[in-house]
Write a structure and sequence with these properties.
single chain; Rossmann fold; pyruvate-formate lyase- activating enzyme; five-stranded mixed beta barrel
Amino acid sequence: MSDGQEAGGASGSHPAAPRVYLDSVGCRLNQSELEFLGRQFRVAGWELSGEPAECDWVVINTCAVTAAAAADSRAKARRAWRANPNARIVLTGCLATIDPQTLRALPGAPEIVPNPKKGDLVRTVTGRAIPSYDLEPIARTPLPGLRARTRAFIKAQDGCDNHCTFCITTIARGPARSLPLGEVLEAVNAAVAGGAKEAVLTGVQLSAYGRDLNPPLTLTDLVRAILEHTDIARLRLSSLEPWSIPPDLFSLWPHPRLCRQLHLPLQSGCRQTLRRMARPITPEAFMRQVQRARDAIPQVAITTDILVGFPGETEEEFSASLEFIERLQPAGAHLFVYSPRPGTAAIRLPNPVPAQVAHQRRERVRAVIDRSAQAYRQQFVGAELTALWESLRAKTPRGWELVGLTDNYLRLRAVAQQDLRNRLTKVRVLGFRGEMGTAEITHPVAEGRRHAGGDP
């Protein structure tokens, strides 16, 4: 990639810095990696662009978790090429790892960087070594354009040691491995220096954090260290596999800076289906974890993942799963229809579920989730909560119309007399229409180590 080296290393007349557009598909881990790549590009002297039409390079962190995510990854690459046929396109991430041949055939002949080489992507593109962050800390700045965030996604862990039969992620990302605690703290402190008010810890198997370190640590150790050694106003945990959650993790709540939301993937509420999925948990054990969380964290939002149409899922199994979900009463869920992924064990399982049946089952689950999510939201009407204002919808004659997120993952809008983006304020919830609530702002919140970003 000598072009990048020439652009990044020119001297004398001080030409304009090369511009790169960053985008991703899929999970919060992909977003955290994108933010890290953005930091590295800035260290190398490159400028981040909010539009592919205005850049020299395009880097897309792809996803392969479902057929839809893979299709979305390919579509983003095509759109970037159409917007700027002269840009060099680099595709990395899970789809680039498991299906590089298909991606190389896309318009613009993208360059492929598989996951094991992602750490060297910026050095390879720019032709420049990246200075050590220990010696030269770089404050996090939100990515421009659609990727601008008030929340920082912090990668703490990668890979997974469980081999769920439907999951392509283990193949694409390899075994579980944890980042050293010091590196995670450094990333959080960089986010704080860059103005982030919330950090979201991410990983493929985040609940197993630290088991591979020497000496071993746990996710509890990591969360406690972040609370003690950083001034992040709010800390949120991303998806936690329920079977590897440290027994003492929930004891850290109700620390006011910990967000009252836990995403615990279920996939199915039927024991037989879970066994074919190779998920090392039963519905009963899952419910015990949920009850532990609810006992320790009042009004916690429990969200989950549900996969329908898994091979061999009979109507009886689906009914058992649906009944369990009704008892679970989650505050929200990601719903998926099973899609065969080459390389996974599930692709060899007999008795596939017809697509029409699977989609009908998804809608039946959606109706249950919609009811339970609405019931969860309604209990907060009239309550005072804290919102982090993330985006501006419009400036109206009444003021600035803002959209934000509470610590327990309620999405709210409110009108303010000033632009409060990336600010925490107290609000009173007025009501909900669907997933969006309306609120009135009462007063701001002091932010920092000794001040709460959440609610008691």
